[in-house]
User: What shape does this take?
Amino acid sequence: MKSLNEYKMKALLTLSYLYEGEKGKDFLRKHIRLSDSLQSEERQVRNKFARVKFDTDQIEAENEQISRENILLLGSLLGLFIIGVSVYIIILQRSKNKELELVQEQQKANEEIYNLMLVQQDKVEEARAQEKIRVSKELHDVVLGRLFGVRLSLDSLNFSDGKEAMTNRANYIGQLKTIEEDIRKISHEMNTDFVSGSGFMDIVSELIENQSKAYGLEYDFKYTDDLSWEFVSNRTKINVYRILQESLQNIHKHSGAQSVKVQVLRENDSVIMYIVDDGKGFDTSKSKKGIGLKNMNSRISDIEGEISFASEINKGTKVTIKFPYTTYTVNN
Assistant: This one.
């Protein structure tokens, strides 16, 4: 189109030279109008291209700005993600360290309790040995001496008759009865179980207090005074202690409870322990295969006792432990 207009302009300019007068001027004016029109159109086109280039440059600049902002946002998100992962790892590690410290403290407490029991057992054995020595001396120096004297006296009466001899025989028979009572007394003392259990509730109380503080639980511990724990075997006390310990650990690990209540009662010839928490509870029909519950059932079977679990979702859990009281009054 542009070449055609140039030819047309050249033709008009040539015609203006060929014709004189008004007709030549008319061709010249057409030539000028066409030239002005072409220049104006060219300026418009140039302006359009300039505007397009300006808009393109602006769009490219905006795109570059958006790209930089996207890169910055992506970097920020990546940084936040890395920080979040780092914080999570730190918190998780601290939680594991705290749990490890708790396990170590528990092991240390168990060792201290075990050592305490060993020391107590050593003292008991020492007391038994001393008691045997005392009884042996008393039998040898007192009872046997008195028996020997009575025997000699009775032998001398074999050669005597009369009322006085009868009176003396009755007196010596009375002494023999006294010696018999002394032997019964010594025999009873020898059969006494010197394994003291009077401090067992103190040990249980210390366990509940220490574990509750470590697990962040409020606790309430009550027990009856009509139980003589010295008549309960060490095996029974150790198993009851471990069952209580396992229950407290389960409360900490699984229940999310805020408080725990422990109560020890006597019911006729049985001891009953209740362990109640206010946690989230569990379905007892689906939670019978855990190692903790198996250990508790195994321990209660070892002492010929019973254990039951009553729980409802979001209504806490109640563990009931029952074992014989009089069955273990002799054997350790």
